[in-house]
Amino acid sequence: MRNGILASTVALSLLTPVAAFAQASTATGAVGGAAVGAVVGGPVGAVVGGVAGASIGAAAEPPAEVRSYVIQERRPSVRVEREVVVGEPLPSNVQLYTIPNNNAYEYTVVNDRRVIVEPRTRKVIQVIE
After folding, report:
1. Verdict on whether the full-model pTM lies above 0.85
2. What domain range includes position 17?
3. Collapsed DSSP state (helix, strand, coil) of residue 95
4. Mean residue pLDDT across the chain
């Protein structure tokens, strides 16, 4: 019985952070995973969920050199009516800019906020405040 609960806790702890993959970062992934794990499996679930959430969150975060490049580049800001949300695609009329030596990400500036985007889907990966 106890092994079944532990297995369920591990499975749920690993799957729940994946559902929030687009919003995840290392810190938020760890906290979210720990919270869900604690609800499902108590203290052991919190530990397992925290570790799983942190590793998934780290995978979702663009590398430091990408963020540094985006911060230092100067591009005009484009106005869009709706809020820019991580996980949601940008409108097709928003121009994306390439990042040298990295084809996994592109960036733009929307509503005076720098945004890192997945080029193929145009989904927002990170908004830099």
Report:
1. no
2. 2-60
3. coil
4. 76
